[in-house]
Amino acid sequence: MGVGWAWAVAAVLSAAPGSVQVVSPLVKVRPDATPKGAKEARLSAARGECEGTQLVLPQGVTRVTMQPLALKGPGAPLTVDTWREVYVDVKTPSNGEGRTGPWPDALVPLSAPGNPRHPTVVYAEVCVPAKQAPGTYTGSLTASVDGKELPAVPFTVEVRPFDLPATSSLPNSFGISLYSIAKGHGIPADSPEARALLRAYGKALLEHRVSAHGMGMDPPPVKFQDGRAVLDWTAYDAEMAPFLDGSVLPSGARFTTADVRDNRKASTDAEKTAYYRAFQKHFEDKGWKAQLFFYAKDEPKPADVPLVKAQAKRVHDAGGNIPVLVTTALNPAFQGSVDILTPIINCFYPREGPQTCHFVADAATARSKLPSRAKVWWYQSCMAHGCTGGPPPDKALDKAYSDWASYMVDHPAPLNRAMGVLAFGSGVDGELYFDTVFAYNTKKDPWADLFEFGGNGDGTLFYPGTPAKLGGTEHQPVVSLRLKHIRDGLEDYEYLRLLTSLGDGAFAKTAAKRLAKSGYEISRDPAEWEAVRQEVTERIVKRQSAEQAKRSGRRTSGGTP
């Protein structure tokens, strides 16, 4: 479930000059805080899982280097990957629980120059292959700062004897755009370099268990012949097939979802329906398992009801296998038109004080009022942190916008991570997020200012890794700490789901509630997250071992396995 325990098992240290401290990834190390950590890194991971921790190095450092480390154990060596954390200067807090000043977020190569005015923090990560032999893997991580070697950090990973699926069990769809990426990197959108960069961004999302909508944005060219839509899939398949057939990553991970790209050349109702039918058939012919969906009007107003109904009718007339997604609270006006109802997270949890959603219903209640095949997803928006930025003068209003699960830079890491646990506890069917590179398409420099929609980082989970910023000659996506936390939350979901499949669903529900009683009652304590993680891990191992013994007994006695 995504948290290393190094900070909890070794003797706590003070911030002694020249020391290296291992700190939980659920702690955001800020300049005004003196973190206390451990002498060694000890992680626990399932097969198919990535685990991270933080190394806090002496301050005032410009260059950090680390010797390559391969952890040795009963199977093939495990590689430790490292990045340096870069700080974003928050000028306007996301709300009353945010703070101004530097916050860690971007993860850059160690070769990139650092800012000596900020803390020196390295994010270290181990990703365990699916077929890795379980057991203990050990080594020592050696770092140098500005040419001075630091004491080695003992590094241990306990690989657990169970697997997480390569593809997320929770469908999700986060937005990304080739055109925003090209603008953020200052390269032509129609260049081969931009296309290769889009693939790198999509790959980075998939490595964090996230699927994308938008991508290249351009729809397949279409011609209409005898009432049929004939599409040229050449460019679309070149872009999307690796993410849909599982070939882009060695793990075989695939996007869980894909959006229908509307085409303006389909102008009449009949042409649009034929176009959607051809889209659906192409996915069927390819055998792609991703849920194809039509993203209808976003946050429709009452005046948009006829538009949504017309969109839904055209899609449904194509055969009914493409669900229509609408970001709205439960609303009788859309009855029969919405197949994936997607309210903001505020709409799932009643709360005292000013109301940020006018129709609150949990997932089960919402689902009961929809057709049997309909799904209930959710999403975050500025309604979870306030759309104006900074603490509002009204304290009751500030409270209403505080404490929610949040992807904002200046909010605690447990809030960044909580959506996976909440998804399991609430029973929602999926998650939507509007964008991951929104700031690229503005006039701002994302490295200096991520403030959009009243929040720091709303709609932006990457940074443009240009040669001017990182050095070298190639462009690359720079992932954020928040994307790591989102991945860890999706891994939390997998742990709880696995435990439930092994017959211990009651404990899984209780464990989820210990971490997140509701969307705004989330534990901020890394020790609590760690304790729950260890208990869930132990119960999975015990349950799985008992199940394997039972199957072995049946085979020994001559029964059917």
Automatic annotation (TrEMBL):
Residues 540-550 have a biased composition (Basic and acidic residues). Residues 273-499 form the Glycoside hydrolase 123 catalytic domain. It holds the Pfam family GH123_cat. Residues 540-561 are annotated as: Disordered. This is DUF4091 domain-containing protein. It comes from Corallococcus aberystwythensis.
